[in-house]
Amino acid sequence: MRSFAFMIHPMHAGDVARKFKFAKFIPDLLTERAFAMLPAMKASVITGIRSPYARVEGWFIACPLTTRLIMSLPQAFVLNKIIQGGRLAEKLGAKILGLGAFTKVAGDAGVTVAKNLNIPVTTGNSYTVATAIEATREAALEMGHDLKKSSVVILGATGAIGRVCAMIMAGEVRNMTLVARNERKLEELASKIMYDTGLAVKVTSNAKRALRSADIVITVTSAVDTVIEPEDLKTGAVVCDVARPRDVSRRVAELRDDVLVIEGGVVEVPGNVEFNLNFGFPPQTAYACMAETMILALEKRYESYTLGRDLTIGQVEEIASLAKKHGFKLGGFRSFGRAITKQEIEKIKLCSGRGQRVPAT
To answer: Which residues pair with 98 in a beta bridge?
Structure first.
């Protein structure tokens, strides 16, 4: 049987409390610290993934560190926890390990983890980019935006995912702004885009200013806290939030009925898949980074496909092609953890002034 493992971790203390009910009565910081002392563990068995060509099974491996701890504890401690989880995956029989959420951000984005394991490692970022771009195109179309006439902003543009999103979108748009904290890296990326595509992009470290005029936003920062608030967005904007934890504040959903926020990287998995773990998605759907690991296992491509912070357009195009071959596809639009219907999108268009009011009869 072709097999894989995928590493997850709690985003915050509340996720720990859902698994261990007694944690609800303990202060969050104490809960996080206590949970961090546990070894990596098997969270569930994944069954039923079947494409027209093969089938695979796998495991979710839980790293016991919250997002905050992954970003604040000594790097050596964090990497050791992730490697420990990888060795558990090896013992279970996995032939490839996928890194999820902030386990793929820690340290050198999986390179050190891969060096310390006997199985290959992938971050899933290639397929995450592919699905984020596809979802953004479709959402923009639904909202009546013409990409070539729209103002596009890539937030977190110098990161592994943001960089390739920017390079791909540069071939499709005429007005794009790249946003990140490191201005030197921004200028380097802008120069590469100019050389490759001829597009002169704007760069800035001021996210608030860039967002105010953006029609379409792809946001993929590594921020622990939200970076996009209701007052930041233009009426009618489309935001594809690829980051985990989310970059877009939940207040946007509460206060702005005139913008469309979608989650990037949500896909339908072929077969009658059972994850045996509730991570907030409808049945048969998963994050794209999870799906990349499944696709590689279905292909018997047991290799460190997406590793480190260098990502190429070729990788993105290849994994998208393999996904299509095996029957993976976008899992519709989701916004703040729930499915969003075409009727709801029409309502957002109407509130933004982009929709067409049906005359009374």
So the answer is: 6, 122
